[in-house]
Amino acid sequence: MSRERRAKRDSRNERAVSDRGERSARSASSGKRVATDGGTDSDIERAIRETHPALIAYITAGDPTLEETKAYVEALDRGGADLIELGLPFSEPIAEGPTIQAAINRSLEAGTTPDSFFELVDGLDVEAPLLVMTYYNMILQYGSEPAVEPFVERAAAAGLAGIIVPDLPAEESEPLREACENHGLDLVFIVAPTTDGERLETIMSQVSGFAYVQARLGTTGARADVSGATHDSLARLSEYSVPKAVGFGVSEGDHAAEIVEAGADGVIVGSALVDLIAEADEPAAALEAKAEELKRGAMRGAEDVPEPEQP
Amino acid sequence: MSDSDRDNETSFGSYGGQYVPEALMPALEELEDAYERYVLENEDGFMDDFRARMREFGGRPTPLQRADRLSERYDREVYLKREDLVHGGAHKLNNALGQVLLAKYMGKERIIAETGAGQHGTATAMAAAHLDMPCEIYMGRTDVNRQRPNVYRMRMNGSDVNPVDTGRGTLKEAINATLRDWSKSVETTHYVIGSVVGPHPFPKMVRDFQSVIGTEAREQIQEQAGRLPDSVLACAGGGSNTMGTFHAFVPDEDVGLYAVEAGGSTLEIDEERGIAPNSATLSTGTDGVLHGAMTKLLQSGDGQIMESHSVSAGLDYAGVGPELSYLVDIGRVTPVSVGDEAALEAFHRLSRLEGIIPALESSHALGYLERAAGPAADSASGQGPRAEADEDLGDLVVVNVSGRGDKDLETVLEETEKRDLEAAPDVEVFDR
C-alpha cells in the first residue's frame, strides 16, 4: 500500500517540479537543506525532501463524518498537501485549542472509532503519505490488552506512514518506537519552544520522518502571525539533518512563506483547515483552495532563501 | 541514568510516568528538582516553614478522636482522624499550601489550579491569599453553577475563577483546561494539582504533603490505644486523602488499608453512552493513560474516558492516583465501594451519633464501616449485607474524616428528599 502511494507521489513530484519552473527547481537542488534522498527508507522523510518545502495538512477524521473526511483528504491532496495528518479523536485532547477540540467532539458524536478510522484509511487512494495523530491511550487500548503493538500493526496494514502522539514525550516512547520500527512506521516527535540542551539531543536522536517544531507555547489554533519562537527553534535545530516542519498557529500562505524562509522544510496547518470544514459552504473546494494558497506561500518562502555562497 | 532507574523514580511499578506534551517536560524536570531539594532535603528550611504555617494558619495537628457511639454501635474501637478540622474544612489545604509555598520558593509568579466541587480551589485560593500569589482557578461550568458558595469563597480570597464550557463541565474538563493554560504559561506559572494524580513528580509530592495525616494518626493511635490499628479506612476519588492517610501505614503489614470508592448508583457501566454511573476506578477500572499518568481508569474498550458519577463531587473522577493503582495491584490496599445511598445514610448517621457533619466524600468511608461492621447486617443500609462485606476490619479501626459536610448540605437535602433514608432527620419544620 505505502509503496503504491510512493510511486504515485514520485510521478506527481516530477510534474510538480516542472510546474514550479526554473527558479524553484534551482533552489530545490542547491543546498544542504534540500534535494537528494539520503538513502532514507522513511516515506515521510522522502516525501518532505522531494516536495520541499512540504505542506503538511491536519484534519480530524470523522469531522463531521468519515465519508466527508474521505472527500476532504482527496481535496487536500489535489490542492498540494504533501503529507496529510488524520486526527483519531480522543475524549481528552489536552494539546488542542478550541477549534480542534470542537472537531474532535463532532467526530466522537458521529461515532468515530479506531476501527472505523482504519477502515477509512484502508479506502483512501491519495498520493500524499498519511500519518495518524492521536493520544497515547487510544494506541494502548487498541486490541484486547493494553499494548502498543496491535495499533501499530493495524496502522501499517492500513498504509499509514507515521504516528504523532502529542502526550508522549521521548522518555515514555520506547515501546511505541520499537513497534514503529518493527512495522516500518515513523514516530514523529514534537520539539517545543521550551525544549533545549540534553532534551533536544535525546529527541533528535529518536525522531524519524520529521521533527514537529511547535511554533509557540500553548495549544493548537490559528494565529495572525508567526511567533519569534519559530525562528529561535529553527536556529537551535539547524545542525540536525532530519527535516523540520513547523506547526501550531500557521494559517496563511504568508506565514508559510516566512516559516520556510526561516529554514523550515515544511509547514503544518491544522486549525485553519478545520475551521473551513466547520464553516465553509463547500468545504472540499475551500480546502483545496487553501492548500494551494499555503503551498504557494511555502514555495515563495523557499525562493526567498538566499543561495549559499559557492566555495 | 538507566531506564530502570528512571522507572523507579518516575513510576510505581507499571503505573505513573510522565505522559504529557513535550512543552511541559522541562517544567516537570524543574519541579522534580525543586521537590527533591525543598521537600525531601528541606533546603532553605522549606519543610520547617511549611510545617509552621500548617500549624499556625492551618490548625495542625488535627485530633484523632475516639468515636464513642460508633464504637458502641460496631462493638469495637473506632477512631476518627479529624481532617475536617483543618482550616478550610478539609485535608485539601495540606497539599495546596505545600505547593503554593513551593511555587514561591521556586520563584514562580502565578498559580493555577483545577477544581471539581471547589474544595481544592478554595484551599488553593486561601493558600495563595496567605502567601500573596496571584491565582486562577479553572472550574467546569456545571460545577460553577452548582457550587456557587465555593466560587464566591475563591473570589473573596482574591482568586479568579475561569468557567470551563467544554464537555460535561466537571473536574475532568477543568483539569484539561488547566493543563492547556500551563502549556502556555509554564515558564512563569506553577500548576497546583489537587490530588495524587498527574505526571511525576505530582503523585509523590502531593502524597508527601498529605502524608502528615497518617503520620499524626499513627502516633496518636499508639498513644491513645496503645497499639497500631487493625484497619484504616479512607475514601478514594483521585486519592489524596487516601494516600495521605495510608502512606505511614504501608510498611505496617498487619494494618489493613481500605480505599473506599464511590459506587454511585450502580457499578454497571453504559459503554454505548460512555457513562459510568460510579467512580469506582480501583474496583472496576482498567489500565490506561489519563492526565499524564498510567493508572486505572474508567474507559471504553476503545480508550475513550467515561463520564463518572457520584453524589459526592469530590470523588467524581474517572482516574485515580497511580500509586493507589500499584498498591491495589500488589495487594497492599483493598479497594471497596459504597453507593450513593449508603454514603448518604452514613452522612446522617455520623451527624446524629457523633455531632460531626462529615463531607459526602468521607461519608463513603463511614458507609463502608457500617457495611462491614454494622448491626443492621441484613438490611438495605449498605450496598450489600454484612455477609458480603469484603474483609474483617478487626477490633481497632481508624477512619479518616477527610472533610466537613457543610458544603454538601444542599446536595444532601435534595438527595435525601428523593429517598427513604433510615438515618435522615425529619425536616418537616420547613414550610413547603
TrEMBL record, chain A:
Similarity-based family: Belongs to the TrpA family.
Record EC number: 4.2.1.20
Protein's UniProt name: Tryptophan synthase alpha chain
Enzyme superclass (EC): lyase
Disordered: annotated segments: 1-44
GO cellular component: cytosol
Residue ranges, compositional bias (Basic and acidic residues): 10-25
Keywords of this entry: Amino-acid biosynthesis, Aromatic amino acid biosynthesis, Lyase, Tryptophan biosynthesis
Self-association state and partner proteins as the record states: Tetramer of two alpha and two beta chains.
Entry-linked NCBIfam families: trpA (TIGR00262)
Reactions catalysed according to its record: (1S,2R)-1-C-(indol-3-yl)glycerol 3-phosphate + L-serine = D-glyceraldehyde 3-phosphate + L-tryptophan + H2O
GO MF, one example: tryptophan synthase activity
Active-site annotation: E85 (proton acceptor), E96 (proton acceptor)
Pathway linked to the protein: Amino-acid biosynthesis; L-tryptophan biosynthesis; L-tryptophan from chorismate: step 5/5
The protein's role, per its UniProt record: The alpha subunit is responsible for the aldol cleavage of indoleglycerol phosphate to indole and glyceraldehyde 3-phosphate.
Alphabetical list of InterPro entries matching this protein: Aldolase_TIM, RibuloseP-bd_barrel, Trp_synthase_alpha_AS, Trp_synthase_suA
Organism the protein comes from: Natronoglomus mannanivorans
Any Pfam family the entry gives: Trp_syntA
Automatic annotation (TrEMBL), chain B:
InterPro entries in the record: Trp_synth_b_CS (IPR006653), Trp_synth_beta (IPR006654), Trp_synth_beta/beta-like (IPR023026), TrpB-like_PALP (IPR001926), TrpB-like_PALP_sf (IPR036052)
Presence of keyword Protein biosynthesis: no
Superkingdom, taxonomy of origin: Archaea
Residue list for modification N6-(pyridoxal phosphate)lysine: K92
Region (Disordered): 375-395, 408-432
Keywords: Amino-acid biosynthesis, Aromatic amino acid biosynthesis, Lyase, Pyridoxal phosphate, Tryptophan biosynthesis
Enzyme class: lyase
Pathway: Amino-acid biosynthesis; L-tryptophan biosynthesis; L-tryptophan from chorismate: step 5/5
Keyword Magnesium: no
Protein name as annotated: Tryptophan synthase beta chain
Organism: Natronoglomus mannanivorans
